[in-house]
Amino acid sequence: MENENKNHNVIITITAKQAARIIGISYWSLLEMCKRGEIPYIPIGKKRLFRQEALLRWLEEREQATLIKVA
Fold first, then answer.
1. How far apart are CA 5 and CA 28, in angstroms?
2. In this structure, are strands 42-44 and 47-49 parallel, antiparallel, or unpaired?
3. Please, which pLDDT band fits residue 5 given cuts at 50, 70 and 90?
4. What are the tens digits of pLDDT across the range 19-50?
5. Residue 38 dihedral angles phi and psi, to the nearest 5°
């Protein structure tokens, strides 16, 4: 029972402002990227939520793509 309660406190999404800070761009740039479908997000009404895990994977994929182009 104790483990079940701990799982309810796990945060699995972050806000657009938090996501922008994590990847190092402005909030407004992040919103534009969402409009263009360039970055993974979860639409909830007018809000856009992000999974930190998905953002880190997205960053890694972009990084790997630049390594392939250079090689």
1. 36
2. antiparallel
3. low
4. 999 999 999 999 999 999 999 999 999 999 99
5. -90, -10
Answer yes or no: are the C-beta atoms of 49 and 14 closer than 8 Å. yes
Spatial neighbors of 52 by CB under 8 A, at least 6 apart, are: 14, 19, 22
Are the C-beta atoms of 48 and 65 separated by less than 8 Å? no
Opening angle at CA 64, ends 58 and 65, nearest 5: 90
Are the CB atoms for 13 and 19 separated by under 8 Å?
no
Could you give the residue ranges of the DSSP H alpha helices within 1-71? 2-7, 16-23, 27-35, 52-70
Contacts of 47 by beta carbon, 8 Å cutoff, 6+ apart = 15, 16
Q: Give the whole-angstrom CA distance, residue 65 versus residue 69.
A: 6
HSE, CB side, 13 Å, CA atoms: give it for residue 55.
Answer: 22
